[in-house]
From TrEMBL, chain A:
GO terms for cellular component: cytoplasmic exosome (RNase complex); nuclear exosome (RNase complex); nucleolus. Residues 34-166, 192-253 form the Exoribonuclease phosphorolytic domain. Belongs to the RNase PH family. It is found in: Cytoplasm; Nucleus, Nucleolus. Keywords: Cytoplasm, Exosome, Nucleus, RNA-binding, rRNA processing. Its main location: cytoplasm. It comes from the Eukaryota. InterPro entries: ExoRNase_PH_dom1, ExoRNase_PH_dom2, ExoRNase_PH_dom2_sf, Exosome_comp_Rrp42_subfam, PNPase/RNase_PH_dom_sf, Ribosomal_Su5_D2-typ_SF, Rrp45. It comes from Acanthoscelides obtectus (Bean weevil). This is Exosome complex component RRP45. Residues 322-334 have a biased composition (Basic and acidic residues). CDD domains: RNase_PH_RRP45 (cd11368). Residues 313-334 are annotated as: Disordered. GO terms for biological process: exonucleolytic trimming to generate mature 3'-end of 5.8S rRNA from tricistronic rRNA transcript (SSU-rRNA, 5.8S rRNA, LSU-rRNA); nuclear mRNA surveillance; nuclear polyadenylation-dependent rRNA catabolic process; rRNA catabolic process; TRAMP-dependent tRNA surveillance pathway; U1 snRNA 3'-end processing; U4 snRNA 3'-end processing; U5 snRNA 3'-end processing.
Automatic annotation (TrEMBL), chain B:
It holds the Pfam family RNase_PH_C. Residues 32-166, 192-256 form the Exoribonuclease phosphorolytic domain. This is Ribosomal RNA-processing protein 43. CDD domains: RNase_PH_RRP43. One of its GO terms (cellular component) is nuclear exosome (RNase complex). GO terms for molecular function: mRNA 3'-UTR AU-rich region binding. Keywords: Cytoplasm, Exosome, Nucleus, RNA-binding, rRNA processing. GO terms for biological process: exonucleolytic trimming to generate mature 3'-end of 5.8S rRNA from tricistronic rRNA transcript (SSU-rRNA, 5.8S rRNA, LSU-rRNA); nuclear mRNA surveillance; nuclear polyadenylation-dependent rRNA catabolic process; rRNA catabolic process; TRAMP-dependent tRNA surveillance pathway; U1 snRNA 3'-end processing; U4 snRNA 3'-end processing; U5 snRNA 3'-end processing. Belongs to the RNase PH family. It is found in: Cytoplasm; Nucleus, Nucleolus.
From TrEMBL, chain C:
Keywords: Exosome, Nucleus, rRNA processing. Its main location: nucleus. The keyword rRNA processing applies. This is Exoribonuclease phosphorolytic domain-containing protein. It comes from Acanthoscelides obtectus (Bean weevil). GO terms for cellular component: cytoplasmic exosome (RNase complex); nuclear exosome (RNase complex); nucleolus. Belongs to the RNase PH family.
Length: 417, 273, 206
């Protein structure tokens, strides 16, 4: 696989992320077991679905064709899943070449949806040993901001649940495929709804983050992917990377994931119902997306706020690292640290942990409660700039600007002699 | 001396010629190269033709095979055209899977066949939903010297006119196929498409029937396909912008080629048994 | 004549340098542009940027037909981008079909232009595409007829914004020269609306 356009994660980013994790912060402000917002949109065709998980975006399309069944299973239809990592999603994805990542994604998704027998294949049979429906699910990844697997599994499931195949009448030799106008198309028979839920594992299970973003995915030691349905049945389990997790942690994570799975499945079902109602009036499909303004843009301002946040350095106090065995409830904050949670704008909240001793060290800013006030102008502190005159030396420069002159630890620029 | 000048400044070399209203091979801007058409010389194929447009040589071979029609269109056969640009024809093609250019031209030829309706797919059906003919039309370029699409289309029509499909007896109840190789019928060809390629040089000058050197230096290509008096394809994939008058002028020029091609085809076929 | 309704949403994807979700009537295409980026040595040109285009259909693996669309859009973009400014680099244009209501090629070309504009890469001119349909009753319309069989011919013509000349052209079906001439003039008139829409979107998005 070509790595020519792959952006490597720098050591600074990695250390920054790990240090924040040690203080129970995630860079986008979520809790360790919080998932990003899922948005499901359907197109005007049956079986076309556009899903965004935070900024990761994926489009899935289901299509059907009549084929001869496999000789080993003459009475069953065929289901094909295909995930395409398009170059639009990330510059290092190559078109027409199956990378390892793509193969792994395809296999995990197949395990979750196909091997779990979620779709009833026997209902797809038209004529035993001669004609069956071959269903093909194509998933195209549009934007890669971490956790493609979850997004793809939700999209595939929603598309399959939304899809309707044409009605067919087969009496002896006569074989007729009815168009949509002649007879209503039939929905797919789905036994249960399995979704994949992915966690990123750091430091052999010390930190387990749900729904990792791109940076978290790249820095993590391993990833744990669990396929679950609404009935808390396990449909797939995958632990990949360099991590050694104890079985208890895996079981606990699976228990937490079960709650998430049922809420996602409910969201998919609601979205399909909603779409069925809208379809009768409008047939616009994805054109509705063109008018929406992405509210995730407002989270960008959060990073500007976080830039302002500063704490006094405490050299004496060392954060006590918890022993591995007691790392049972990751999401509960240490009882010593209190946090300040304030709503920012519609759909966004900010969490500012406070140090116990001196609350003044942290600037807690007043957040506007009004929903209209989306933009707040933040003044960044101007760095103190010192100019050193070195006109009397051999240097071609007349003056040298010293940055960060107020930091005592920064070495002064040596005078050129 | 001229050779060195040509390899050092090819564009300037061409510009000098074009300023005198003549091309390096002696033609004016609107003339196309002489065309040679040979039909029916390949016995192993069901239909064949070889066309030579100046130096550009294309062999077209048609093989007919029996197949089952698709469930969605039970009374239609299949036509599968494919253009192969092997390393033999030009140094810029390497061995391996079909290059992008070959794929694009194959698709263009497929579109031309569909748009001009020269083959009616229902003619290829033997028994609805059970048996139909599938025509594999293979083009092999032996010499790549520009205007490959033109050469392919002439070869295509020549080959189609020589295709003889055997009569097939099909017993639906017993699923018995009997092919009668002695008794053949010619394939009905409903129209004769004629294609002309133009190259836009320097955003201003339009040259008809470009050679490969002119194609490499040009800033745009236009392919116009006519069927009798109707247009069936005007393909201009990007390249220098043209005003609509200039485009219509190209269409007029390509119209003049149609009766000549028809006569050429008639003459070539009258000797074939 | 009923005009096609254009809608779009800029910067819908976070990874590409410029991206857009473009709706032409009901046809929807997502386009993304990366550029200038690193290029493979075999594909590098020493005097200009290598413009590459990838078109992905919604279902099924990309086939030979998509190669034709790719070469069409690639050549159009190459003419309009100032490729000479970025030697030994690549500009990648990616398109994903979302919904197809018979205006796919023109929607894809328009989306590609908007993606270029949204990314801020240097361009010589804007380009806009219009689709015209010739119905069985020999009438030229801009909105797609509902029944497929009613369409006798289809014209996709791409114009450039500075002088209004034809940049690219693609046709399907049979038609006469006069009908082609008529189609060109109708598309030219409609293309002015396309450019107005581009400019309006950019002003709204500041």
């Amino acid at each position: 696989m070509s790595n020519i356009r792959k952006t490597i994660v720098s050591n600074c980013e990695k250390t920054f992320l790990l240090k924040n994790l040690a203080e129970f912060n995630r860079l986008d402000g979520r809790a360790f077991d919080e998932f990003r917002k899922v948005e499901i949109e359907f197109g005007s065709d049956w079986g076309c679905c556009f899903v965004s998980l935070g900024k990761t975006k994926v489009i899935a399309q289901v299509s059907c064709e009549i084929q001869q069944p496999k000789s080993s299973r003459p009475g069953e239809g065929i289901l094909n899943l295909n995930v395409e990592l398009n170059p639009i999603a990330a510059p290092h994805f190559e078109a027409d070449r199956q990378s390892n990542e793509q193969v792994q994604l395809n296999r995990l998704l197949e395990k979750c949806l196909k091997d779990s027998k979620a779709i009833d294949l026997e209902s797809l049979c038209i004529k035993n040993n001669e004609k069956v429906w071959a269903i093909r699910v194509d998933i195209n990844v549009l934007n890669h901001e971490g956790n493609i697997l979850d997004c793809a599994s939700i999209a595939a499931l929603a598309a399959l649940a939304h899809f309707r195949r044409p009605d067919v009448t087969c009496d002896g030799e006569e074989f007729v495929i009815h168009s949509i106008k002649q007879k209503d198309p039939i929905p797919m028979v789905i036994h249960h709804y399995p979704v994949c839920i992915t966690y990123s594992v750091f430091n052999s299970g010390l930190y387990i983050l749900a729904d990792p973003t791109l940076l978290e995915e790249n820095v993590a030691d391993a990833f744990l992917s669990i396929g679950l349905n609404a009935y808390k049945e396990l449909c797939g389990l995958h632990l990949g990377g360099k991590a050694d997790l104890s079985p208890e942690i895996i079981i606990q994570t699976a228990n937490k994931a079960a709650a998430r799975a049922s809420s996602v499945v409910q969201q998919i079902k609601d979205a399909i119902e909603q779409n069925n109602e809208i379809r009768r009036e409008q047939k616009d499909g994805f054109c509705r997306l063109a008018n929406k303004r992405d509210p995730v843009e407002l989270v960008e301002e959060l990073s500007v706020y976080l830039d302002q946040w500063s704490t006094k350095k405490k050299k004496n106090k060392r954060k006590s690292k918890e022993p591995k065995d007691e790392q049972i409830e990751q999401e509960v904050k240490e009882p010593d640290i209190t946090a300040d949670i304030k709503p920012l704008v519609a759909g966004t909240a900010v969490l500012v942990p406070k140090e116990n001793d001196d609350g003044d060290a942290i600037k807690v800013w007043d957040t506007s409660e009004s929903e209209d006030d989306a933009v707040e102008f933040v003044e960044l502190p101007h760095p103190k700039v010192e100019t050193v005159d070195i006109a009397d030396t051999d240097s071609e420069e007349e003056a040298v600007i010293v940055l960060n002159a107020d930091q005592k630890t920064k070495k002064r620029k040596k005078r050129l002699t | 001396m001229a050779e060195q000048y040509k390899s050092l400044h090819p564009v300037k070399y061409y510009r000098d010629y074009l300023s005198h209203n003549i091309r390096p091979d002696g033609r004016v801007f609107d003339t196309f190269r002489p065309v040679i058409l040979n039909t029916g010389s390949i016995d192993t194929a069901d239909g064949s033709a070889l066309s030579k447009l100046g130096q550009t040589t294309v062999v077209c071979g048609i093989k007919a095979e029996l197949c089952k029609p698709k469930a969605e269109s039970p009374n239609k056969g299949f036509v599968v055209p494919n253009l192969d640009l092997p390393p033999l024809c030009s140094p810029k093609f390497r061995p391996g899977p079909p290059s992008d250019q070959a794929q694009v031209l194959s698709q263009l030829i497929n579109d031309i066949i569909e748009n001009s309706q020269c083959i009616d797919l229902t003619d290829l059906c033997i028994f609805p939903d059970k048996l139909a003919w599938c025509l594999y039309i293979d083009f092999i370029c032996l010499d790549f010297d520009g205007s490959v699409v033109d050469a392919c289309i002439i070869a295509l029509v020549g080959a189609l006119k020589t295709v003889k499909l055997p009569f097939v007896d099909y017993d639906a109840a017993l699923d018995n196929i009997q092919v009668n190789l002695e008794n053949t019928r010619p394939l009905p060809v409903h129209s004769i498409p004629v294609s002309t390629t133009f190259a836009i040089f320097d955003d201003k000058i339009i040259l008809a029937d470009p050679t490969v050197e002119e194609e490499n230096l040009c800033t745009g290509i236009i392919v116009i396909v006519l069927k009798d008096d109707e247009l069936c394809c005007v393909h201009k994939p990007g390249g220098s912008p043209l005003s609509s008058d200039e485009l219509l002028g190209c269409i007029e020029k390509s119209k003049k080629k149609v009766p000549l091609m028809r006569d050429l085809l008639k003459t070539a076929l009258q000797d074939v048994g | 004549m009923e005009a096609t309704k254009y809608r779009c949403n800029l910067d819908i994807l976070s990874r590409p340098d410029g991206s857009v979700l473009f709706c032409e009537g009901k046809t929807t295409v997502i386009a993304g542009l990366y550029g200038p980026v690193e290029v493979k040595i075999q594909k590098a040109h020493i005097d200009k940027a290598t413009v590459d285009c990838h078109y992905r259909p919604k279902s099924g693996l990309p086939g030979v037909e998509d190669r034709l669309y790719e070469s069409f859009i690639r050549n159009t973009c190459e003419t309009s981008l100032v490729a000479a400014l970025f030697p030994r680099s690549a500009v990648l244009i990616m398109l994903q079909e979302m919904q197809n209501d018979k205006q796919l090629i023109s929607c894809a070309v328009n989306a590609a232009c908007m993606a270029c504009l949204s990314s801020g890469i240097d361009m010589k001119f804007m380009f806009g595409a219009v689709t015209a349909f010739l119905t069985k009753d020999e009438e030229l319309v801009l909105t797609p007829p509902i029944i497929d069989k009613d369409i006798k011919a289809l014209f996709v013509i791409v114009f450039e914004s500075t002088e209004g000349r034809i940049l690219a052209c693609h046709t399907e079906g049979c038609f006469s020269k006069e009908q082609f001439n008529q189609a060109v003039s109708i598309c030219e008139a409609q293309c002015i609306n396309v450019f107005k829409f581009f400019k309006q979107t950019l002003l709204d998005n500041k």
